[in-house]
Design a protein that fits this description.
mainly alpha; 172 residues
Length: 172
Amino acid sequence: MTRKVLIFGLATGFINIIIGLSTAPLWMEHMDFSTGEILGYVSILLALTMVYIEVRSYRDSELDGVISFGKALGVGVLIVLIASVIYVIGWSLYYKYMMPDFQDRFLDYSIMQINQSDFTETEKQTQIKEMTSWMESYKNPLVMMAFTFLEFFPIGFIVALISAFILSRKKS
């Protein structure tokens, strides 16, 4: 099981990176971060289908079609943990080498969105100050990695929960 979990975790992470890189041209040119965010989460969900596939494969090929909810969840979460680490590494490399001006562009985009909102001028200034502070903290690689991990892992955990619920079977 450990080998399969590692393979499927790596595959899930790399599938997400490949999908992300292939969709980047759709939003990067005009820095449409809203579209980028939607495409990013769609690529995460597509990649996470591997969790369901691996848990089902493990149940059927190694456990004679029987798996407890806890065991299915454990396998799913291990895959998600590995995929999350690959996602963090992929984003870190992408961020550093392909989009080193991400922070400035994202901050400019966010300020533009805030200024176009219906907030009062005071609320806008407060939001801009908070966003500027957040982007400053994002310069710390550990903070950036933590936020990146938290983009992927919670969604993966939900997929692992759903997969465990659907696939768990008791011995009859």
